[in-house]
Write a structure and sequence with these properties.
Elements (H helix, E strand, L loop, with lengths): L3 H9 L16 E5 L1 H19 L2 E2 L3 E7 L3 E16 L2 E7 L2 E21 L8 E25 L2 E12 L2 E7 L3 H39 L4 E3 L4 E4 L7 E2 L4 E5 L3 E3 L26 E6 H13 L4 E4 L18 H6 L4 E8 L4 E5 L2 E16 L2 E21 L2 E18 L6 H24 L3 E2 L6 E11 L2 E10 L6
Antiparallel strand pairs: 1-13, 1-15, 2-4, 3-4, 4-6, 5-6, 6-7, 7-8, 7-9, 10-11, 11-14, 12-13, 15-24, 16-17, 17-19, 18-19, 19-20, 20-21, 21-22, 23-24
Helix pairs in contact: 1-4, 1-6
Keywords: Glycoprotein, Signal
Family: Belongs to the BPI/LBP/Plunc superfamily. BPI/LBP (TC 1.C.40) family.
Pfam family, one: LBP_BPI_CETP
């Protein structure tokens, strides 16, 4: 059997009766970050920013100051390095004008080398000394406002405002005269604070540019298999509320080689996110149009057909195993091997209700006899299979399984006379239960990818089926990697 048929079977669980698909720039999948999700991302970005900032070298500072009883002293601070930043409080708040990230009460530790020289009329030779010092910046506040917009299907991140404010500086000298401490503080306190503010602001600006470049490199398609991809192009600008951000993407299946997907009309499609608990970080809503597009693609690309030549009870693929079920078959082709040629006669039909998924699959089964190297079709049976489905999360994939509820059958055509279908029905039941469903479920368990950025993983996810939509509500974990 062709593996791609299994993606069609998954799509079968999400196709409404008489629905039609139109491949447009509409959004059929949405991803919502709640306040908890925003806090999680904010903490990651702060950790990334600190890692990218430290160690940070500041410019050399020189100044001549007048010290009582000493005179004019030339002072130099060099090799000034920020080696540690601690953040005690931070928050993120989306709003109409952008996304504000505020860091308050941060501390910053620096190391530096100092040097001074002076001469007086009492001592005509130059006096100098050098040593090291440690500096602690306290009460540092950092604020930035980010703009986020859709730019030709990708996210564009811009830095709208950025500022850093240093409240207090303390200096500890290693060596030096007692007068040097107060002179150092008086001379350089403002310059050290200003240098820290400028350096951190510049680094944040560079970091936002790198983060924007990272967003620009996000793929617009996620491969599903060798033939199909998910179109994850962003549609519309992100929707910002006071406690969440919603991203809308196209989300439809498309050919990997841009093969055209047949166009149909889609009615009343609206993608939305709703998770009962606001404590979940992430909500992903998949409109049934996503699964419609999978069905349309695979069905029209002729992937919904396959040949069964091996079954657990191999006697069912020999006319001898049918001698008492279809005697005329055995009489005309005694002890010949057989194939079962299966193909879907129409795209599967599916209805999603609250906590329930039902599917109807129309299948034509052609009985082929293999005789003298020839394949001879002898009869075709139409099956209407009714099943129920279950969806689950497998890693970052939406996976599923199907079980048989019941089926009906009718004879479509026959070259061997009339068939007693009530005798064939147990054989069909066995084939569906032992061949069709196990094979389908082994592939459905792999699923297809959800629109998650590489490095993030869903965990403790809940799935809600409601109003022709699948909603995934989940927390996320992050595998450490460098973004900034």
């Amino acid at each position: 059997m062709a593996p791609t048929i299994l993606f069609v079977l998954m799509a079968a669980f999400f196709i409404p009766t008489n629905s039609h698909l139109q491949l447009t720039d509409q959004a059929f999948t949405s991803v919502a970050l709640s306040q908890q999700g925003l806090d999680f991302v904010k903490n990651l970005l702060i950790d990334e920013a600190i890692s990218s900032i430290i160690p940070l070298q500041l410019p050399k500072i020189e100044k001549s100051v007048k010290i009582p009883f000493v005179g004019n002293v030339h002072m130099v601070l060099s090799n000034t390095t920020i080696y540690k930043i601690d953040v005690s409080e931070s928050y993120v708040k989306p709003g109409d004008t952008g996304i504000a990230i505020i860091v308050a009460g941060a501390t910053c530790n620096l190391s530096m080398n100092w040097y001074y020289s002076y001469s007086t009329w009492l001592v005509p030779v130059e006096i100098s000394d050098r040593g090291s010092a440690s500096v602690q910046v306290e009460g540092m506040e950092v604020g930035l406002t980010l703009g986020l917009e859709n730019q030709e299907g990708t996210l564009k991140l811009s830095l709208m405002e950025c500022g850093c404010y240093v409240k207090e500086i303390s200096v500890i000298l290693d060596g030096g005269a007692s007068w040097l401490y107060q002179g150092m503080v008086d001379a350089f306190e403002g310059q050290i604070g200003s240098a820290v503010e400028k350096a951190i602001t510049k680094k944040l600006d560079e970091g936002i540019l790198k983060l924007d470049s990272f967003l620009q490199t996000l793929p617009k398609e996620i491969p599903v298999d060798d033939n199909a991809s998910l179109n994850i192009t962003f549609v519309n600008d992100p929707l910002l509320s006071n406690s969440s951000i919603v991203f809308e993407i196209n989300g439809l299946f498309t050919g990997r080689k841009r093969a055209p997907v047949p166009k149909h009309r889609l009615e009343n499609s609206q993608s939305s996110v709703f998770c009962p608990s606001s404590s979940r970080m992430l909500g992903i809503t998949l409109d049934e149009a996503v699964f419609n597009s999978a069905s349309a693609f695979y069905y029209n690309a002729s992937f919904m057909q396959w040949i069964v030549d091996k079954v657990p009870d191999q006697s069912l693929l020999n006319t001898g195993g049918w001698r008492f079920i279809v005697p005329q078959l055995y009489k005309k082709y005694p002890n010949d091997d057989m194939n079962l040629n299966m193909s879907l006669s129409s795209p599967p039909v599916m209805r999603i209700a609250k906590n329930n998924i039902d599917a109807v699959i129309n299948l034509d089964l052609v009985i082929d006899v293999l005789e003298a190297g020839k394949v001879i079709p002898v009869a075709c049976i139409t099956l209407i299979i009714r099943g129920s489905g279950l969806v689950k999360i497998a890693g970052n994939n939406l996976a599923g399984s199907v079980k048989l509820n019941d089926f009906t059958m009718s004879l479509k055509w026959s070259n061997i006379g009339n068939l007693r279908l009530y005798l064939i029905q147990p054989v069909m039941w066995t084939l569906i239960q032992t061949v069709f469903l196990p094979y389908a479920n082994s592939h459905l368990a792999k699923g297809f990818p959800l629109p998650i950025i590489h490095g993030f993983t869903l965990y403790d996810a809940d799935i809600i089926c409601s109003d022709s939509r699948i909603i995934v509500c989940s927390d996320v974990s992050y595998k450490n990697q460098t973004i900034l």
